[in-house]
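User: Quick sanity check before I run a bigger batch. Here is a single chain. Can you write out its predicted 3D structure?
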Amino acid sequence: MESSDFRPVVRLRCAAQNYAWGKLGSNSQVAQLAASGASDLTVNESQPYSELWMGTHPKGPSQVIAEHLSSEVSLAAWVETFQERVLGAQIHEQFKGQLPFLFKVLSIRKAQ
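Assistant: Done. Predicted structure follows.
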């Protein structure tokens, strides 16, 4: 990636987690959000969609979708390439260039 590839706001394709306590199929806001970021995702109406992860966690890393790039890029690579522009100098220094959080959207059908 080049410096000119940086955009302050980018679209993400985020990972959906399918824990048993999540709402089923398209009744789940998580499924709806995941499908809106991934045109190739087909929502399975019998599957629970419990958490949408936005971040760089290795078990569900987000992908940057940018029309000006030839392919998707992992959010981790995006942050690594544009560290101070994405994180700001203080956060970049404090967390050694890593995204310091995992943002989650929950869709709960039942408590366990």
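The chain is about 25% helix and 20% strand.

User: Great, the batch can go ahead then.
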